[in-house]
Specification:
About 35% of the residues lie in helices and about 25% in strands. It is of the alpha+beta class. The strands form five sheets. Strands 1, 2, 8, 9, 10, 11, 21 and 22 form an eight-stranded mixed sheet that branches.
């Protein structure tokens, strides 16, 4: 049984970048990454929008605000070094009315505090960037927002880490641990320090180590709808003003790195943790537990969950889904939206005490293990500096 200095559970973007930062700081450390899937980044890390965010949505006291601007810069640098394509198309946040125009100013203030490059521009200036855009008097321009292929980034990270003697073990599911040994479906492994980056199952593994006592994962399904008529009707990312009470950004237009146009995502409450399509990965115990939690939130409307759930359920109606996006443009052919992309599941943490969805990243740790419990959007953008934060504050000798 081999002993590893650092054993990472999960090969999503957070697990990969933590291994990357460990290798930068500890060149001779032995590192193993295990994953229950057959390849890296199988879940949220390859199923997200691919947007590199700029950092103006988040309050200054949050880890998201601390890491998004620098994460955007570092991800751009990694992509340049490893020849990963980037679509530097920027983003417009648009308003529907005077109240949303005021909200643009709040986003601008947050961006200024966080060091994000944002500009309040006129309706006419917005139309110069995107002739098809519709907004009320002003829009917020984010020139540093960009699009990448997140799966390609994960692949490049894995290749780089393998070249630096980081070991990987796939189809390797954690089952339990005793002291400094974990048992998996591929045998036992000994570790000095364990880092739990298991995404949808991070809370369960954390509880096995005595953590995450006041939290649980509530999964939300994100679906995008692709516009296949052409690639020219939209030139840039176009977002609505979000409801800042929730950790979701609303249905928006994404311009992918390949130039495709898609709308989404939804934030539909899922019924089990990997409730992607049909009955795939169905688990009765998860269904019972999640339905119990969601029913309680729905009945009490804790943190506006009932309102959110009812609104999200409407998005199963394709016409309604398209109509939400149509309002941000002067013209778009609703019949051009013909293809759903691969759905993703957001591993959203719920605070069982306050009944609130946790907005920020959350880490719990001791001398033996570190647990990344709420690495939700914009975690992909934040991943390099967030991983550095984990290494410097939880893994240093």
């Amino acid at each position: 049984m081999k002993n590893y200095n650092y054993l990472i559970i999960g090969s999503g973007i957070i697990g990969l970048t933590i291994a990357y930062q460990i290798r930068q700081k500890f060149p001779r450390a032995s590192i193993l990454i295990i994953d229950k899937e057959t390849e890296e980044g199988f879940h949220a890390s390859s199923r997200n929008s691919g947007v590199l965010h700029a950092g103006f949505y988040y309050t200054a006291d949050s880890l998201k605000a601390k890491f998004t601007v620098e994460g955007n810069r570092q991800m751009h640098a990694f992509c340049a070094e490893h020849h990963v394509a980037v679509n530097k198309c920027g983003k417009l946040v648009v308003a529907r009315d005077a109240n949303e125009q005021k909200a643009l100013h709040e986003l601008k203030k947050r961006g200024d505090v966080n060091g994000a490059d944002t500009q309040l521009i006129t309706e006419e200036e917005a139309e110069e960037i995107e002739p098809n855009v519709r907004t009320y008097k002003q829009a917020l321009l984010s020139p540093n927002t960009a699009s990448i292929n997140p799966k390609e980034v994960c692949q490049k990270l894995k290749t780089y880490l393998q070249s630096k003697d980081v070991d990987f073990c796939f189809s390797c599911q954690y089952t339990k641990h005793k002291l400094n040994v974990i048992e998996t479906t591929q045998g036992n492994f000994q570790f000095d320090k364990l880092i739990n980056c298991a995404g949808l199952y991070a809370d369960k593994i954390a509880r096995d180590f005595g953590f995450c006592k006041r939290y649980t994962i509530i999964p939300f399904k994100g679906i995008y709808l692709k516009y296949t008529k052409n690639k020219t009707d939209v030139k840039t990312n176009i977002y609505p003003v979000p409801d800042l009470k929730f950790p979701f950004l609303g249905v928006h237009f994404t311009k992918t790195v390949e130039g495709d146009i898609k709308i989404g995502p939804t934030a539909m409450p899922a019924l089990w943790r990997e409730n992607y399509e049909g009955l795939s990965h169905f688990k009765l115990d998860e269904l019972a537990s999640i339905l119990w939690r969601e029913a309680g939130l729905f009945l009490t409307n804790a943190s506006g969950f009932r309102n959110l759930a009812l609104e999200e359920m409407k998005k199963y109606n394709k016409n309604y889904f398209i109509k939400l996006a149509q309002g941000m443009l002067k013209e778009i052919d609703p019949k051009g939206f013909t293809e759903y992309t691969k759905p993703g599941i957001r591993a959203q943490l719920l605070d069982l005490h306050s009944k609130k969805l946790v907005q920020d990243f959350l880490i719990e740790a001791d001398q033996k293990s570190v647990h990344i419990l709420n690495a939700v959007s914009p975690a992909f953008t934040c991943s390099f500096p967030f991983a550095q934060h984990v290494v410097e504050n939880y893994l240093s000798a």
